[in-house]
Amino acid sequence: MRVEYRLEDGKLLLDLMDPRAPRRETFTRLSELGAPIELEPTAATVKARAPPEGLGEIEDALALLDGELVPAEGQPPLDQIEDEQPNYEDVRPLAPEDVVDEARGSGEPRRLVKQAIRRLGECALEHPSFEHRVERDQDYLRRALDQLFPEGDEPAEDETDPVKREVSQTLREVPDEHTWRARELLLDLHEVREDEAGERPIASFEQPIEGFQGQLRDYQETGVGFLLGTEFNAILADEMGLGKTVTTIAAVLAADQRALVVCPANVLHNWAAEVRRFTGEEVAMWHGRDVDGPDEARFRITTYTSLSYRDWRDTDADERPLLVLDEAHKIRNPETQRARLVDDLPQQHRVLLTGTPIVNGLADYNELLGQVGGEAWDEQEFAETWLSDPQLLRQEPKVRAKVADLLQEATEHVVLRRRKADVLDDLPPRTVSVTPHPIEGEARKRYDELHEEAETVLAEEASAPEVFARLHAVRQHVLETRLPVLAERIQALRAEGETVVVYSHYRDPLDELEDALGDEARQLTGDTPPKKREAYSQELGDPEGFDVLLAQMEAGGVGLNFTGAQHVLFAHLGWTAATHRQAIDRVHRIGQDEPVQVEFFVSPDTIDERLAQIILRKEQDANLALADDARTLDKAQLAEALLGEAP
């Protein structure tokens, strides 16, 4: 079952695309399952409306019905709408021109201007899509600071202070025009580090763990000790594929505790299978209004949407003191229903599991830290300082490296993150390559026409959804020209005995590839039921199974293992670097015995190349925190992708 959405007048208009499904009953059922939708009272064919911030709840409700939420043609992807922001002029705390006027009549002009720069950084924290607008206003204020209010009214730095001395050493090779900005940033971060930093607590525990039916790797034992040492108030942010689930299961058994696990609907059965595999115990699954398993089970597993079906506050605080939030980045937006439901849970001991702690900027990280008691982050002081000058961090690598050190020191007592390259000596190598696919002849001519249309739309100051419509048109045209090349490449790999996973954001090309490849291929999309997903995971690469999996990036990027494959093909670039990593990590993870080849198809001198550059640059920005970024594109970056330059 597919439900399409489009943006109209600030609302999502939902339309059921399955002609066999009863529309009114389906939308009513979605509403009962927690989706914040309203039926269109005058529609001849029943449709529904919903607020954009309710996307997560609609997705979860659809998952319970084995459904999929997809954009209508020309509409932006889910993550772009979920983070859609209001008009910049409405949220900007102040106009930079007014600040300069006020500073001229003040006895402390530099302090007022610096304070304004910081307040603008707070605006970027709350509204990441306006970061480029904030940077422009901040640059205006910095130029005014240098030209109108030169230094001289500020006391000289006390270089006998060891912190200031260390900062001065870091700034030795920083250009003069950046020095005062970098100095202020680093001094603020040192102060936060001193307030928050603590040693990473690693508790010892008795081994073997009673009831645990498995063998932990060394780094997983460290993870168990970390969760025990933090008393289950921590973020386990290991890279995908390192076994966060089994580490958490072992820690719960080591503490002889009972836990409530909350996860997305598409990994509910995976969690249950892992608990049974490593403990031999039954689990209690709460899926919508359906209950499966004994209520007294050590592990109760439910979905974010299912939290709305019973009052968990009645008994669970005493019965299950531990709360495990899987794919915790899904509660990064505190305004969504799922985040509010999690906040209402009584458990004081919370473990957050996520391989993607930063999705749209440091504000996401701030929300997750608030769940485990990061006090300085609750006040947002550190995050505001960070976002006050992202351009400086990009321009000055030495400052960036120092800021990264300070951030990690300030959070290592509640955050543990390891990468596969650091802890898995026995993991087979992974090779990434880019295959050029030139566009020529009539296909190139059509591409140029679409490119010109995009220029016209941008020149008219179109909205982000309109820009996305042009972006989709351009990308889909490039992908259409690539399909014969993809099919030929897949057949060549099959002839060599390779098992292949092919990823695409769009569903139509997967349909076409499935028709071309025949019975040896399977397709995994948002419509694929959970049991069939598990079966595909087991059958991929098996002699009695199949050797080509065609997967939508969003559906095939989480909660499943595809270690039966050795080759990953991306039909086109995803929207974010994290999308690629999640997809690759389904194949390159524990249990993989063969080297993994990852292949991207990119068309030179097109949107492909520009989008790759933007993703790589934004990934570098977020490396400051956890070397993991998945920012979606705002309108400025869309323009850069389409036209090769920012507006």
Quick structural gist:
It contains 28 helices and 19 strands. The protein is α/β, with parallel strands linked by helices and 647 residues long. The protein has four domains: 2-72, MutS, DNA mismatch repair protein, domain I, CATH 3.40.1170; 85-155, no CATH class; 218-422, Tandem AAA-ATPase domain (Rossmann fold), CATH 3.40.50; 427-643, 3-Layer(aba) Sandwich (Rossmann fold).
Please write the CATH class name of the largest domain: Alpha Beta
Q: Please report the total strand number as a whole number.
A: 19
What overall geometry do the principal axes of the alpha carbons give?
A: globular
Spans where pLDDT lies below 50 across 5 or more residues: 153-158, 375-380, 620-647
Q: Number of DSSP helices?
A: 28
Write the CATH architecture name of the largest domain: 3-Layer(aba) Sandwich
Widest beta sheet: strand line-up: 9-8-10-7-11-12-6-13
Main pleated sheet: 8 strands, mixed
SS content category: alpha/beta
Q: Percentage of helical residues?
A: 40-55%
Roughly how many Å is the radius of gyration? 26 Å
How many structural domains does the protein architecture include? 4
- CATH-derived topology of the largest domain: Rossmann fold
The CATH superfamily of the largest domain bears the name P-loop containing nucleotide triphosphate hydrolases
